[in-house]
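Dear Dr. V.,

Thank you for agreeing to look over these. As mentioned in my earlier message, I'm a first-year student in the group and I'm still getting used to reading structure tokens, so any feedback on how I've presented them would be very welcome. I ran two proteins. I've put each sequence directly above its structure. The first is here:
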Amino acid sequence: MRVDLPTGKRPGWELDVSEEEADPSSVSESCVVLQSLRQSRDQWMYFAFPRFSGRVRGKPDIVPPPHTIQFRGRCQIEIGPHIFSETSFYQVQYLPPAPPPTPSFSQSSWQASQYNYAPHGQQNTHAGSQTPVTQHTTSPLLSSLSSMSSISPALINRVNGAAANNPTLANLLQLAAAGKGSPEQLKTLGLLIQSLATSESPEALSSAASLAQSSSVQPYPPPAPPAAPPKEFDLVFQYYDTSHERWILPRGPVICEKVADTRTPGLTYDIVLTIALQPPNVAQPSAGDAENPSAQVVVIRLKRPPPAIWETIWGWVGGEEKLNANRKILDDLKKQSERVYLAHRIPENSLLTQLRNATASNYAMKPIKPGPVVTPRPKRKPAQRKPTQPAPASQTQNAPQASGPTFQVTKMVVATPSTSTPTTAPSLTAGQPEPKRIKVARPLLEIRCVSCQQTDVPLILGGRFCRPCVDSGKATTVYVPYRPPQPSYDAQQNIPVAPVYAQQRSYAQAQAPPPSSTFINAVPPPNPPPDDSKKT
């Protein structure tokens, strides 16, 4: 949105306020500088220079005249506080306009005329085969050519050559071929042809032409104007931000200078253009109206351009003589122009509200090229543990001894929870955070031979033994089958005793038996055979 910004003739004029008026706002709160920079940049990009080609919304596309365009280079330009990077420059050479068509009458038009004169010795008596209207139209021409016996190809070429140089004769031939000539014009044409047939001297041709011009009624159109001189080439540039539009650097008083670059003196340089520009609503002046007082002097700086751009600008300016004349004109324009100053501080009023609304960003300030998407890590909720149950107690009971041979039996009895209050392990409440687990670093497994404990050697047989140990027989493993332990008998009571690991199993529930064994309970052995010696 464009806002009319207040200006004055001296700096700080907006601070001269009366006591009744409110104090002006600060520079940052007034938003004048920001809006001024925005409007100024848009002015330089879309309205300051004449448009060469591009698209305008709501209007037909601008089509330039026939031309040839040549790319000269690309550089950065600075206009006041504005920087336009990657600006392209072109040289446009306009093509000369096409010449206007000239009337030409060929031999075929002479042969196709209605008075039936054809080459190769065709007689004029063939005209009697035409219609009565044609005979009435061409009778004056036939009567004037009655003395000629035939029309040769040389005569036809002679008449065509004379028509190319004499516009009056060409006009009479055209009227006779179209059947629109009057009897007097046809008679005059016949006399001209007779004079060309009898004499080839230029005096006879000029006398016949003067006679035809006096008797002719139809005026001949004036000759075409001379071709216009070719138009001078233009310097066209294109902003990087508006790649679909190209602008013309207008001709006028221009000064171009080379300025050494401070960062790399002697290697690169800048081009400073001082040019007189007309306001956008004023038409560009011609070469004679270069000293228009409404023109404004503008300084354009080209940062480190290629040499091709400097050569194009130097030829576009016109050389050293033109440069000195333009310097005088620009000095006079600087003296005539009046400088205005922008108001940086504005009091609380409608203009300040309008400026704040214009400078407020109504969209989210996001980068054009966003970075990688980073998903936030999910937060772990504290775990809620249920109160643990009391550990079951194991008790052992001895089985009652029966009559006869007895043996000891070990049983596993799970005790039921008593009515007394069980002791529970401490648990975490909902509000208490879970304690952090300490990560214990696992020791690195060293790769070495199982037999000789040597490292940094190739291992075989599943990565367990080295080659020397295998060759020496140290890697030979002997398979020993597992034999479960047999119950031992008490020699006195002849009662089998449970294995030791079974007793440990009954009291220590957390320990598991060997993987290849099974739990063997104490089973009474079979009764011994009866002793026959006692019976006897």
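The second protein is here, in the same arrangement:
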Amino acid sequence: MISMEAWVTIRYLRAQGRSIKGIARELGISKNTVRRALKANKPPHYQRPPRDNPQLIKLKEQIEEMLFEKEFIGTRILKEIQQIGYTGSKSAFYRFLSKLKAEKGNGKAVERFETPPGHQAQFDWSAYTVMIGGKLKRVIIFSFILSYSRRKHFFASLREDQLSCFEALEDSFHHFGGVPKEILVDNAAQFVISRVGHIIKWNPRFLEFCGHYRIKPVACKVKRPKTKGKVERPFYPLEQHFIKGREFESFEEFIKKLHEYERELDYVTHSTISLRPIDRFLKESSFLIPLPETPFISTKEIFRKVTSDCLISYDGNRYSVPWPYAGKHVWIRVSQGRYLKVFSQKGVLIATHTISENKGMSIINQKHYEGLRKRLPRTKKLLEEAFLEKFSEARSFLEGLVVQQKFNASYHLREILKLAEVYKKEDMHKAFSLAISYNTYSVNFIRGILEKEGELEEQRPTFTLRPLPRLKIKRELGFYNQFL
């Protein structure tokens, strides 16, 4: 601010015909200062700066801790201090905050582009270290944003491989009830094998996924992250408002709270479109492509054969599946890095388990055996009758079992009858004969023999063989000398 005397001098010299440049040189001030003085019809006067709110002064140490140590953003700090009694205005708070930090700006001007409804979604992910169950765990949060409505969907996982990306995308499609025409992704190995300029070599499995959902893949420009700005920017408020300074009892609670935060965002007016995303989505939803009837099943899925006792193996453990699938092939998929999902060959989800962190475990869901148990007798006498009715020639095995397993013969008989549901009768008799020869009467021995007969293997497709057409070809014998 210039003094009263300087203001008078500037206006006087200008009235004498002096140029703005000449006045600035003579008084040692800038040309802009001269211009402002000439435009001002009133002399400059001192204005006292606004005083800090006393409540903020008392909370200064806590605000500094949140700002500099915890690195909370302004809106998060304001929310925190309001919870402990701050009742002042937002403007007073932000004025106070500006005194505690030096604002830096290094952004470059970019052209903002908008997309029509249902046309595009943007997908990305970020890793965070989160306190879950008293332990620090690395959690991946995938972000899917519909570019038109700005509706967001977050998906948490303990892994960030390609299958996790596919699962996050599928979960987002089902969350919004449809698929956009194109998906904008970065150049990660999960999607892109190589890129030279505008020439992109896509990952074939990703193309297979896109083909299933009829969606066009688009890779953002290299070293131009703002191409995908609608996704990458939301990770910052997610970290500030949801991740930082919080602890969770379990991974399930983390997911629940993440979805609550997501729902809150649906009803917050977006600064760019000046509308709530949930309201704008009403227009966009009808433009989304309908979902296919079945989920994506890759040509490289993991297949397993279900054992006679309704179990499949994965990573050193065994997991139960519903008993009607015993002896059949199923395919499995790791979900969110924590759950094992089991699907029938038609793509129907038939079982879900939490993956055990230990090895050599059998993880059993008792409901998977309910239908089977109803079909079997409960008392020892009825079980013996059922066994002889099915295996009348194996009476000697039954007698040995009753003697050797005196206190739990019913259990062994019941389990053996379960095995008989899925194995051939002749295979059962072979196992009984071996048990007699080794004088070992137990369901574990019988099961072991039967499982050797049916090792886990991938199901191979069957082909119909057609006879080759016959051709009458006559050649001179000298023709065959070249093959000798």
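From my reading of the second output: The two ends are 105 Å apart (CA to CA). Residues 103-111, 454-469 have pLDDT under 50 and may be disordered. Does that match how you would interpret it?

Kind regards,
E.
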